């Protein structure tokens, strides 16, 4: 990863405020646990409502936190007045999401004026704290102007 150019010194506040408005992340019980230039971490604790028929985290949960982590990693490098939207992503689910929580860690691969490419890795955390790499996402995010407050 090349050096990240910070275009908004208040990127942390912007990302945290946006995450707080994301009702789906709230519904999942997800928490934004780290925000750095070009890198974000989101965690979600396990509960039965987030599992599939075998008791593993549902792939939709895994995908959702990876997508949000990628989007917010991209947003850390955007100028003030920006938001991001997912344009496309590909996820490889490599192992069951089995554990007490999932952690999605995303980093920016390349940040452009409009398009940013990110990679997100998701880990299932066992009761003893051991992490198992269960998914990898490559995502493309598009910069959009933030709507004007009315």
Defining key terms:
150 residues; 6 strands
What structural category arises from helix and sheet content?
A: alpha+beta
Structure summary, number of beta strands: 6
Tally of helical runs: 3
Q: Give the H and E element order.
A: HHEEHEEEE
Q: Could you outline the blueprint of secondary structure elements for this entry?
A:
Blueprint: H1 11-20, H2 23-28, E1 31-36, E2 39-45, H3 59-75, E3 82-93, E4 101-111, E5 115-125, E6 131-145
Antiparallel strand pairs: 1-2, 2-4, 3-6, 4-5, 5-6
What does this structure look like?
This protein is of the alpha+beta class and 150 residues long. Helices cover 22% and strands 41% of the residues. It has helices spanning 11-20, 23-28, 59-75, and strands spanning 31-36, 39-45, 82-93, 101-111, 115-125, 131-145. Strands 1-2-4-5-6-3 form a six-stranded antiparallel beta sheet. Strand 1 and strand 2 form a beta hairpin. The chain is globular and about 45 Å long. The N and C termini lie far apart (39 Å). The mean pLDDT is 95.
